[in-house]
Design goal:
With 337 residues, the protein is α/β, with parallel strands linked by helices. The chain has helices spanning 46-54, 79-85, 107-118, 123-136, 142-145, 155-167, 185-202, 213-219, 237-242, 247-253, 294-298, 320-331, and strands at 2-15, 18-31, 35-39, 61-69, 72-73, 90-93, 173-177, 205-209, 222-227, 230-236, 305-307, 312-314. The chain is built from 12 helices and 12 strands. Helix 3 (107-118) packs across helix 4 (123-136), helix 4 packs across helix 6 and helix 10 runs parallel beside helix 12 (320-331). The structure holds adenosine-5'-triphosphate and magnesium ion.
């Protein structure tokens, strides 16, 4: 069953220099019990996409297109209705924990309120759930922690508190934006395990944004590769690693001989992504693509189209034999940075 359906989403920020279209015609679906990974360089629109889904964009942003949770349309929903959904049916783990922790309230107060806002339980039960939640994310002496304020905790501990808070009400949709980046390897593994639990227990759909292809290989069912506001490739995770189709994806894979190891950062592809204030016509990756054709620069950008029988989709004008040949070289690790 499809839980999240994003259809032709466009998110534009008003800035002093002009409109910045951070998400430009993105469509995706995530089924219940599935994990979709989103990868892409800094600035490709991953956070803008997640904040759009959560209804947490600043006033300077406009959203066009459709975002559905089951049958319910989220675009255009009132602030009040969105707030009711957040923390119960949908939850998000942010890159920066202080985006969702209140600095002037204790951890305990915030966790207990988060439970009581969405579940009919006594304070005592809520407190118990909060303590269990903290213990589950590996916070030592969780009971004592309830009395602390966010600033009294280390960055890693704050991250864990935020994750505990996101998971408290067992959301059906969890969006995790770089949830493990600030954490050590053991804690990372613990957090990924918690996500697996959530998926098992409540058949949750998870969108996992990460720079870490090792994490993708370990926990994702499908992957969407974002470049300059668009999805350029989408594939089941095994397909992505076995038969990567887009030249940008090849670049991401190029530095990963030991890609089953976690902690691998994405490799730097020569050149820089285009400015989203005035993106190039045609394919946005064309200026950095080693195999660029004239048509890539002049024709309208290709949209995602199915390739092969494995369920992959790619937005690229190269012919299939070239993509198969080149993709196989990167998959085999013959090309490295
Ligand atoms: N509030 C904002 N106002 C104006 N522009 C913004 C705003 N937030 C994001 N942008 C722009 O939108 C684009 C996408 O940013 P976003 O934060 O979504 O990237 P990202 O893929 O999450 O990057 P990272 O990997 O660094 O987290 C960038 O060009 C960024 O400058
Ligand atoms: Mg981001």
């Amino acid at each position: 069953m499809t839980l999240l359906t994003v259809d032709n989403l466009r998110t534009t920020f008003r800035t002093d220099d002009g409109p910045v279209c951070a998400v430009d015609g993105v469509s995706l679906t995530v089924g219940a019990g599935k994990v979709l990974g989103i990868v892409g360089e800094s600035g490709s629109g991953k956070s803008a996409l997640s904040l759009s889904i959560m209804g947490l964009l600043p006033e300077s942003a406009t959203v066009e297109g459709s975002i559905r949770l089951g049958e319910q349309e989220l675009v255009g929903l009132s602030k009040h209705d969105l707030r009711a959904l957040r923390g119960s049916e949908v939850a998000m783990i942010f890159q920066d924990p202080m985006t969702c922790l209140n600095p002037v309230l204790t951890i305990g107060w915030q966790l207990v309120e988060a439970v009581r806002l969405h579940q009919q339980v006594s304070r005592r039960e809520a407190r118990k759930l909060a303590i269990d939640g903290l213990a589950a994310v590996g916070i030592p002496s969780p009971e004592d922690r309830l009395r602390t304020y966010p600033h009294e905790l280390s960055g890693g501990m704050r991250q864990r508190v935020m994750i505990a808070m996101a998971l408290l009400n067992r959301p059906r949709l969890l969006i995790a934006d770089e949830p493990t980046t600030a954490l050590d390897v053991t804690t990372q593994a613990q957090i990924l395990e918690l996500m697996r639990d959530l998926r098992r227990e409540v058949d949750a759909a998870i969108v996992l944004i990460t720079h870490d292809l090792g994490v993708v290989a370990e926990v994702c069912d499908e992957v969407a590769v974002m470049y300059a506001g668009r999805i350029v490739e989408r594939a089941p995770v095994d397909e992505l690693f076995a038969q990567p189709q887009h030249p940008y994806t090849w670049g991401l894979l190029a530095s990963l001989p030991g890609r089953s190891r976690t902690g691998q950062r994405l490799h730097q592809i020569p050149g820089a992504p285009p400015s989203l204030l005035s993106p190039p016509p045609g394919c946005r990756f064309a200026p950095r693509c080693a195999l660029v054709l004239d048509a890539c620069r002049t024709d309208p950008a290709p949209s995602l189209a199915p390739v092969g029988a494995g369920g992959s989709q790619v937005a690229c004008l190269l012919d299939q034999s070239t993509r198969d040949r080149e993709g196989a070289r990167y998959a085999a690790g013959e090309e490295s940075a």
